[in-house]
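Section 5.1 Outputs to date
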Amino acid sequence: MSASDQAPRPMRVVHDGPRQAPPLLLIHGSGASGACWGPMVPMLARSHHVIRIDLPGCGQSPPGPSYDVPVQASAVAALLDDLGVPSTTVVGHSSGGYVATALAEQRPDLVASLALVSTGPRLDAFLPQPLLLRGLLTPPLGPLLWSIRTDTMIRRGIAATCARPVAVPDELVTDVRAISYRAMRSVLRHNTAYLAERGVPERLAGLDIPVLVIFGAADPRWEPSSAHQYDAVPNARVEVLAGVGHLPMLEAPEATSTLLLESAAA
């Protein structure tokens, strides 16, 4: 059973599994929320205290003062300190992997191990985006389409990043609807700036932290072969899932959960 913290926080927090179990922090990507991990939670929560957050401006969290990646990482660090979590396995999906990486850069004491799911390593690995996403995110049409989004349109936008049919959780659709166009554009700008400054493999190379990289072999957002740029990172393990797109947590929740649990146990 899931439980949300009742005390006001800068980020919504949802707990699953026994609080005394090893912690597992899940960080969603741009334009999503902690609900994106829903299909994986039952398996993960059998053995872990699963902590899902909505980053500032996403899902049920209020807008943040800044969407700069290091600022978001600092907010996550403060949250973990507030929760009394001394060290945890940190999992980031897509741009959530940048927040996870920045957290490891700032507070390696909080990150026992790192897992990056569909996290593009460098800007040159970014692919031309599906037409629906480009329409929603690109001016001048973007703001209008964003304002008139229907549940069906949101589901189609999510499905456009997948390589196989998926069941999109209703909670995720509701959370995506709550994200403003302004917040989304700001998040994307700051993600780009973070990658432009330095690629993720270069950032991780200087950290003595075990890293698991999970990529879909049919990811339409990032060149799938770019996953192997992480091979240069010490203590990194790269796993590519056949027939999976950008959302392994929805497309292959059991296989993705198995990899995360194996990594956390190691």
